[in-house]
Amino acid sequence: MTLLQLKYIVKIVECGSMNEASHELYVSQPALSSSVKELENELGIEIFTRSSQGIALTVDGAEFLTYARQVLDQASLLEERYKNAKPRKQLCSVSTQHYMFAVEAFVEMINSIKSDEYEFTIRETRTKDIINQVANMLSEIGIIYLSDFNKDVIGKMLREKHLEFHPLFRAPLHVFIARTNPLAGKKKVTMDDLKPFPFIQYEQGEEGSFFFAEEAVWPEYSPKQINVTDRATILNFIIGLNGYTVCTGIDNGDLNNEKIVTVPLDTDETMLVGWITNERAKLSKAAETYLDKLKSVVASHGYKLIAR
Questions:
Q1: How many C-beta neighbours within 10 Å does residue 253 have?
Q2: The model's pTM
Q3: Rounded-to-integer distance, Cα 40 and Cα 44, Å
Q4: Where does the HTH lysR-type domain lie (predicted)?
Q5: What is the 3-state secondary structure (H, E, C) of the chain?
Q6: How do the domains of the chain map onto residue ranges?
Q7: Can 90-168+272-301 and 172-264 be said to share one CATH topology?
Q8: 3-83 topology per CATH
């Protein structure tokens, strides 16, 4: 079945005769009749009844005509969307763990786009959701980290979903704490130092596990623990409740440096931060621009990029 055959059927019905339709379609009547017969044989139905008085739609033909018109309408929408001489709207979707540098790069990407129309999406979300969104092509790029603890589980999941991990930089661990916290002046802090303070972590849902945690390390036992879902809340809790969270150490203007500081964590653990892509998909121009801006932002914060 072809779109051309569907157009033939609709035109025949509009004209009321095979002969008139053949003239309007610039197709010989035998060729038109043959095309309709091939379609009927393929579908196993009779679309038209033929008599000395002309042709008429059968019951099956009337039902088929309804579907044919719907298909042709959809095809027309596709042609209008992709054959329009007007430059197409730029699209890009990114899913990321709660990293301020990822948002900073997204802003720079949008500011650099020379387009009258665009539609961009950034999702700060759970680790497993990021992986699934890239696997299902809801997002072109996902930003996550690997550590010695989670790399086997996350790596297996990425392979099963045909995703590729591209390392961006390796970050020594830090903590965000309030500037009023008594630990704020220390050159390094230990997990023991942090025991008296509430530990704040990003919630990973009912199916969450330590392997999907955004925090590369956590206290063995914390009498005070708060689970949150968004970055603004975690920053407010650090200030308002004198809590802490484990992070890469990259900050920017969103951090509110007058009230929050970043302090190195005394540990040998690191975070290998990178982006994931679907090996079956080709990145859009906007997505490639985003990656360039992402690398630039990370480098501007003093982190060494991993060469590929």
A1: 8
A2: 0.71
A3: 6
A4: 1-58
A5: CCHHHHHHHHHHHHHCCHHHHHHHHCCCHHHHHHHHHHHHHHHCCCCEEEECCEEEECHHHHHHHHHHHHHHHHHHHHHHHHCCCCCCCEEEEEEECCCHHHHHHHHHHHHHCCCCCEEEEEEECCHHHHHHHHHCCCCCEEEEEECCCCHHHHHHHHHHCCEEEEEEEEEECEEEEECCCCCCCCCCECCCCCCCCCEEEECCCCCCCHHHCCCCCCCCCCCCEEEECCHHHHHHHHHHCCCEEEECCCCCHHHCCCCEEEEEECCCCEEEEEEEEECCCCCCHHHHHHHHHHHHHHHHCCCCECCC
A6: 3-83, 90-168+272-301, 172-264
A7: yes
A8: Arc Repressor Mutant, subunit A (1.10.10)
Size (the chain), residues: 308
CATH of domain 172-264: 3.40.190.10
Question: 268 and 129 in contact (C-beta within 8 Å)?
Answer: no
- Do residues 211 and 148 lie in contact, with contact meaning Cβ atoms separated by under 8 Å? no
Tens of pLDDT, residue by residue over 45-97, are: 988 888 776 778 888 888 888 888 889 888 887 877 777 655 556 778 999 99
Q: How far apart are alpha carbons 110 and 100 in whole angstroms?
A: 16
Q: What would the two tokens of residue 235 be?
A: 């920053």
Cα separation of the two ends of the chain:
47
90-168+272-301 has which fold?
A: D-Maltodextrin-Binding Protein; domain 2 (3.40.190)
Tokens of 154: 């996350």
Contacts of 262 (CB under 8 A, 6+ apart): 174, 175, 176, 247, 249, 251, 255
Q: Please check whether residue 164 is in contact with residue 276, taking contact to mean a CB–CB distance below 8 angstroms.
A: yes
